[in-house]
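Might you be able to consider the sequence and fold that I enclose below?
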Amino acid sequence: MSNRLKALGLAAVVGVAVMVPLYGDPRAGAVEHGEWARMLLRAVEMERAVTPSSSDAQVFATLSWKSSLAFRADAYLRGDGVDVVGAAGARRVVATSAAGEVAYPLAVMTGGDYRLRVRMAGNPAAPASAEITPLGGRGPAATFTLVPSSLTGWVDAGAAHLDPGAYTASLLLPAGTSLENLEVAPPCTEAIEPPGGWRSRAVTRAEEVAVTAVKALDKESELPAADSPIEVHASSMKATRGAAASVAALGAAPATDGLWLKAGPRGLQAIVFVDLPAAGLYSLSVFGDAGAGQSWKADACRKAVWCGAAAPAPSGAPAWHALMTAAFGSGRHFFNVTLAPGATVERLRAERKNDSPGDYVATLRRIGFDVGAGGPISRVRAVDAMQFIREHRREMAGTCGDIVPSQVADGGLAQPAPLAGPGAAPGFSGAGPGGGPVVPLPGPAPVPPVTTPTTTPAGPPATLPTVPSPAPVPTPVPVPPTIPSQIPGSPVLPSSTP
């Protein structure tokens, strides 16, 4: 990537470092959805991803991410060495010098794998390049090569993991290359929006502030439970990479079989199936130790990363950790997990939540902020809510990037095993590709039974005896469905479950 492109990214930081103004008289008048949405962006410190002239629709799209975040080529934030040509509605950017450069603001509310694609034309022998760079960060978050064709068409640059934050998407275009559109397609994210969606001129109500505030703080796991939680233990998790010496036997106890997945020096990958009896908003949490980090992906789409220490202790203290809260349909769902060295998992929990507006109001009050009586919220109270979100957002755990498969023995992503049938438990054969079965290993004496089954079980041993992996079963294993190709500008929806 050229120095000019890096300089352009720096210029973009300067160009967008403008506070998004609150419009309207601060002493009177209602707080409309457009104003509250801008206040939310300011609260999460992503106001630099839009400009003061950005439309309400663009601000709403930044918070919701229901579909690809699309930019017309001529809507760049900064440009150098390019001309805008074409009639209104069909404008494109053409590089006129040795290398033209354009940059676009980008805000990521939820971490995950984001796909970049552009509509362009040019000389296939002179590829273009792109960077997605964090504003104020060090180095590029992702770099792509774009090989255009001589005819205008969509070029899929690929996907990259992005943590929440503000970014600049910059493109370096060889001379003569034309660009019409740029899109960043999201993974399966949960929209930050009030019930019924954003409406530009609608008056913001107190309960809408509560809903969007809890979502912006990623605290939906604090919503009250609707049902008893569903728990899946390590013995039901299929190790698919680095499985040797990965399971510990700690002795049977009520509501737990005493088995743990534990990643060795080369890491571990596994898959687990969960049957959800009813559709709804579910909070997923894991009991274990982060080790050097864990990465979970639901239905090959929605991702959550549990950050780990740079140098994890040989035996950490197991604890519950909330992974994600998302809407799931009824039926079977699968979760791939990549464990970095030292990470452990004893169980995965799925808990359906009550998610009425009143539940969000009560949850936000319990967290520490009361939106007050129902009805339109006052501007003073809205500003207080914005400050509360800003202060508590800064207290959230820091981002750490992804836990990549190359860190795990044998490489490759986890593969689902064949299913036993609708509604039945996974029909695991006892040996997975690239690793051994999930079985108890010789271990220490059984621990005393616990009195509360769903509380903290005993932790895994610091060291595990080495057990050779049995020969892999030659039966082919189906691959999890990936995110299907989307028509440009269309919603990106979760893949169907196996």
Confidence is low (pLDDT under 50) at residues 5-27, 243-256, 409-456, 461-498. The chain has two domains: 3-21+48-185, 229-356+398-498.
